[in-house]
């Protein structure tokens, strides 16, 4: 009897990327080789070998310095295997200004759908009004029973809610998971995570906590985090400040100049990694560096957070969990069933160099942070994991 040969590592990359490409529209940016290497636990040269098989077949193309993209001839196509076995089809709307975080989430959505034998039809949108409505109608005519909008600019939250009301088929989007309902377990868990991040920063004997984020009044995710931060600090008599800045370096540099007065006694919780890294750059111009002069935590564990100097401590998103909920809720909406929020798992706090966390946790091994699992760079828990909180 012939024993089947085990699949090589680069072949695992190739297989997964072929499935992803089959579900994405023309021009979609694929994960970088370093992102793939981190995901599969391999070196980037092995990841590159898997990607190059797709390049050789002409289904993706590479641009030095920019990345790898889906070729034109694959636009709107799906794999033969998917067409022959899929029993359900869902749509996916992709904003043309999607960032790296969005692409990681969309990749997870494709994986979650594939596990349930669901075919994905995706297309670009230019806005959340006429363009999105036209594409939703197009997706419906392709046989999709619902569509998903995995990512959108948080400042456009209210436009997305209107899109969901007006579209010709149900729309599953993150605000269903992280909406305004206080009974939503995902909302409660997000608050717990933020409060635990504040508690983690406070263990460094910091006098003042700060929240740093975008100046976007329409951003519902910002409203939730800022509200939880302010309530936590006020309830515990913690001195705190808030900095909301516009895009670009001008307002960030101005904020850094103001916060220099807190040198040595300031710990910052940033809205995401991008704002954290921009602030670190602005403080460096003032001659200040983390963690000696300030401490800072980001959100999302982006590739940039792993390349910064110093390396950024950050809270990682569970993309697989979010993706499965988006897919499940799309199915529930299409079938007239209640939307399910599910129980959020503890989120990894990746401890790097922008905080003095490793020494503090080593000296206090019994400290627990509900909603967070403190991890080293390689993902190994430190032992300081919080108990589940419902």
UniProtKB/TrEMBL annotation:
Taxonomic classification: Bacteria, Pseudomonadati, Verrucomicrobiota, Opitutia, Opitutales
Occurrences of domain HTH gntR-type (ranges): 7-73
Keywords: DNA-binding, Transcription, Transcription regulation
InterPro entries listed in its UniProt record: LacI/GalR-like_sensor, Peripla_BP_I, Tscrpt_reg_HTH_GntR, WH-like_DNA-bd_sf, WH_DNA-bd_sf
SUPFAM superfamilies: Periplasmic binding protein-like I, Winged helix' DNA-binding domain
Provenance organism: Rariglobus hedericola
PANTHER family (alphabetical): HTH-TYPE TRANSCRIPTIONAL REGULATOR GALS, LACI-RELATED TRANSCRIPTIONAL REPRESSOR
Entry protein name: GntR family transcriptional regulator
GO molecular function annotation: DNA-binding transcription factor activity; transcription cis-regulatory region binding
């Amino acid at each position: 009897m012939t024993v089947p040969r085990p699949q090589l590592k680069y072949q695992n990359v190739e297989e997964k990327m072929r499935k992803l490409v089959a579900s994405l529209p023309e021009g979609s940016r694929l994960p970088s080789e370093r992102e793939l290497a981190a995901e599969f636990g391999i070196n980037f040269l092995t990841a590159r070998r898997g990607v190059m098989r797709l390049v050789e077949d002409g289904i993706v193309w590479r641009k030095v310095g920019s990345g790898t993209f889906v070729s034109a001839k694959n636009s709107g196509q799906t794999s033969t295997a998917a067409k022959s076995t899929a029993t359900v089809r869902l749509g996916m709307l992709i904003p043309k200004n999607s960032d790296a975080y969005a692409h990681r989430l969309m990749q997870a959505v494709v994986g979650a759908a594939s596990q349930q034998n669901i075919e994905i039809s995706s297309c670009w949108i230019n806005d959340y009004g006429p363009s999105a409505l036209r594409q939703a109608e197009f997706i419906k005519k392709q046989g999709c029973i619902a569509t998903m909008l995995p990512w959108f600019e948080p400042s456009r939250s209210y436009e997305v809610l209107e899109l969901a009301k007006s579209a010709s088929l149900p729309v599953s989007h993150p605000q269903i998971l992280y909406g305004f309902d206080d009974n939503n377990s995902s909302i409660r868990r997000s608050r717990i995570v933020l409060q635990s991040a504040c508690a983690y920063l406070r263990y460094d004997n910091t006098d003042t906590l700060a929240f740093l984020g975008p100046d976007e009044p329409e951003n519902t995710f910002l409203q939730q985090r800022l509200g939880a931060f302010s309530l936590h600090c006020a309830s515990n008599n913690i001195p705190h400040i808030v900095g909301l800045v516009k895009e670009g370096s001008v307002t960030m540099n101005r904020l850094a100049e103001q916060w220099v007065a807190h040198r040595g006694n300031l710990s910052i919780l940033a809205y995401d990694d991008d704002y954290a890294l921009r602030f670190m750059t602005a403080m460096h111009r003032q001659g200040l560096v983390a963690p000696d002069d300030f401490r800072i935590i980001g959100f999302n564990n982006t590739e940039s957070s792993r390349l910064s100097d110093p390396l950024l401590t950050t809270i990682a998103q569970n993309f697989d969990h979010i993706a499965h909920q988006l897919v499940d809720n799309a199915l529930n909406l299409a079938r007239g069933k209640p939307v399910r929020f599910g129980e959020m798992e503890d989120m990894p706090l990746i401890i790097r160099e922008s905080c003095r966390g490793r020494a503090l946790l080593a000296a206090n091994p019994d400290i627990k942070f509900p909603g967070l699992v403190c991890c080293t760079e390689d993902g190994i828990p430190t032992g300081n994991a919080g108990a589940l909180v419902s």
